[in-house]
Amino acid sequence: MCYGLSSFVSGRLSDRVGRWRLIVSGTALIMVAALGCSWLTPDGWAYYLFYWCCGIGMGLVFAPLVAWLSQEQAPRKRARGISRVLIRFCLAWNLGLMSGQFSGGVLFPLGCSLPPCWRQS
Question: What is the pTM of this model?
């Protein structure tokens, strides 16, 4: 929900504020939120606040990034009216999502809590 709403807002806002500024601020928000989620346990309200901030950050990144990649390009960089750069990005994005979910599923039985380097013996 946070991802969808922030994508809608940031897509409209990117023309006024600037795509690069929203992408950088969204990336920073994702980093802070991911650190917050890794330090907290999922039994408190603060964890869910950081979790929602991850969705907001993704919305701040994705919509302006797609708009930036879709900007007018030379006709030779288009395939039937669609930006080749955007097609390649979407393919890489989706392959990354699928491989991340697959590796998470494979690694889950090995240890479902914190990464091994953060565990104390």
Answer: 0.71
Q: How far apart are CA 76 and CA 84, in angstroms?
A: 9
Cα distance between residue 64 and residue 47, in whole Å: 27
pLDDT in tens, 52-108: 999 999 999 988 988 888 776 666 665 566 777 888 888 998 999 999 999 888 877
- Kindly state the tokens that stand for 59: 């919305």
d(CA 60, CA 10): 5
- What's the Cα-to-Cα distance from 117 to each of 28, 41, 63, 105, 113, rounded to whole Å? 23, 17, 34, 19, 11
Q: Which residues pair with 3 in a beta bridge?
A: none
Please give the Cα distance from 98 to 118 (Å, whole number).
25
Residue from 74, 72, 54 nearest 1 by CA: 54
